Amino acid sequence: MKKWIIKMNSGFSFDATAKAKNDVAKIGVDHGYETINVFRYIDSGESDEAQIARIDGITAGVNPGDIVVIQYPMLISYRFETFFIDQMNKRGIKPIIFVHDVDSWRFNWVKDGFDEMAYFNKAAVLIVHGKPMADRMRAEGVTAPMVDHLLLDYLDDEHQWDKYEIPAEDFDRQLVMAGNLLKSQFLVDWDLETPISTFGVTDDELADKLRANPQVTYGGGLFQWDLVETMPRAFGLAWDHNLEGRPYADYTHYNHPHKVSLYLSHGMPVIISKQSAIAPLIEANHLGFTIDDIHEVDQIVNDTPDEVIEDILEHTARVGRMMRDGWFTANAFQQAERKVLVPDFDYDNYQNI
Hints:
- This protein has two domains: 3-153 and 327-341, Rossmann fold, CATH 3.40.50.2000; 161-324, Rossmann fold, CATH 3.40.50.2000.
- 39% of the residues lie in helices and 17% in strands.
- The protein is built from 15 helices and twelve strands.
- The chain has helices spanning 16-30, 48-58, 78-90, 103-106, 116-120, 131-139, 161-164, 204-212, 224-230, 248-251, 258-265, 279-284, 297-303, 306-324, 327-341, and strands spanning 3-9, 34-39, 67-72, 94-99, 125-128, 146-148, 175-180, 196-201, 216-218, 235-238, 270-273, 288-291.
- The strands form two sheets. It has a six-stranded parallel beta sheet, sandwiched between helices.
- Helix 2 crosses helix 3 (78-90).
């Protein structure tokens, strides 16, 4: 038996699209997986027969009994997603779906042409973002076994503790927000006392509005290394708003935002919604603060005692080391492999100490 993982070749983006999937593929390779290179293309003119032949060609080295980790969505088309997993199952290959996003929960139009839950049921195992995501999937009919990967990792080749672990005396009591700023239109009207530095995807109109707000610093879209060097050593904010047809804020109740991984892996405690899926993990592990309303930020930033900040920074530094090494993804792979290879192995109820 061999283990394979999809590596998407989709070009550069300032948001998390490429970084998250590239990191998962690299962690897989570091733990014994071989890559299947898939290039994004426009498949609208391709016949079903031609697409199936393409998929069989891409996976020609994969044999019955092998494991293939599919990084979903591959962002080619839902037809491609369906044919790919169907071919794996027809050929006796065990597909594990690493769920980066559930599209039908993010974009209302998706469910009109694609039964995403039926697709998930074609997996031998699903790697999901946590219990809220798993519970909603089950409520919508998903019966495939699931594994929780706890946190998205964020790889970094420079393991410099003084660079990514923030001493309390160097911590800046302000906010940073990095990522797709089009999901965070509230920044235009930012009227809090706490200043915020923003980086990432936007358009000209939004960029101009951000620059017009004296409490907002817009740093543009930056490459990963430039972003890490430029971000203030401060609190990382993850806060989305719903837009028409795109319930971004609601979606945070189920997913783990990649920007949270960016912050934590670089020593920055986070401030997130108390309703978000990742909130219990943040609270339990002293990795930041959870809030009900964005206007609570000023009190947290200004009034949190120094000793509390120091404790949070120490916890964040330790978890950041694990994330920069890919620990959470590697652990999820091991749990998923166990469910594929020995599905009836009694692991959860076994006590050895």
